[in-house]
Write a structure and sequence with these properties.
With 182 residues, the protein is an alpha/beta fold. The chain contains 5 helices and 6 strands; from the N terminus they run E-H-E-H-E-H-E-H-E-H-E.
């Protein structure tokens, strides 16, 4: 059995210096073609009973709200569970209703600095927290990546702010391979 990772888009407004997709210059196919292809692939894999769980990621899946909505509708229709998603929270509020309707059980919020400054027009921490609190049926996890600009005390405050079940702290080195935190 396999996990199926679905990337509705490779587009992201983030400028995370370590992201493997940050220089992705792929042009998205039309939403209708993407959804048609998704339905076909998922159905065929289900017929062979190859998938044990479904995972939505990206780029940033909420950056294309209509495409994410269509993706979630297809996955719900085809009874694709368990279903989880990773997002930076960029348009979580805008996508809230159809995320809740989809049956997603787990969402990982991946923020690569404590304030979300790496994302153009990112929701404030308080706004993101309010949105998360209105989605009480979903278990949230949080990824916070230690970077050059990250202060540990700010990470702890951020971790205490959000209603999450788990937190992942990932420390990266700078380009020379030295630790970022002294």
């Amino acid at each position: 059995m396999y996990a199926l990772e679905i990337k509705p888009t490779s587009f992201c407004l983030g400028k995370c210096w370590f992201c493997c997709d940050k220089d992705n210059r792929c042009v998205d196919i039309s939403t209708s073609q993407f959804l048609k292809n998704l339905r076909t692939v998922v159905y065929e894999l289900q017929q062979k009973e190859l998938i044990s769980n479904y995972y939505i990621s990206g780029g940033e899946p909420t950056s294309r709200p209509k495409r994410l909505q269509g993706t979630l509708e297809i996955l719900k229709e085809l009874k694709c569970y368990p279903l989880s998603m990773t997002t930076n929270g960029y348009k979580l509020q805008e996508c809230r209703d159809y995320i809740l309707d989809s049956g997603i059980k787990n969402i990982t919020i991946s923020r690569h600095d404590t304030l979300g400054k790496e994302i153009v027009n990112a929701p404030s921490n308080q706004s993101l927290k309010r949105t998360m609190e209105t989605m009480e049926k979903i278990d949230f996890s949080f990824n916070i990546v230690l970077q050059k600009s990250t202060k540990v005390k700010d990470m702890i405050l951020t971790a205490e702010l959000f209603p999450v079940k788990s937190i992942t702290f990932l420390q990266l080195s700078d380009v020379k391979g030295t630790s970022i935190i002294p």
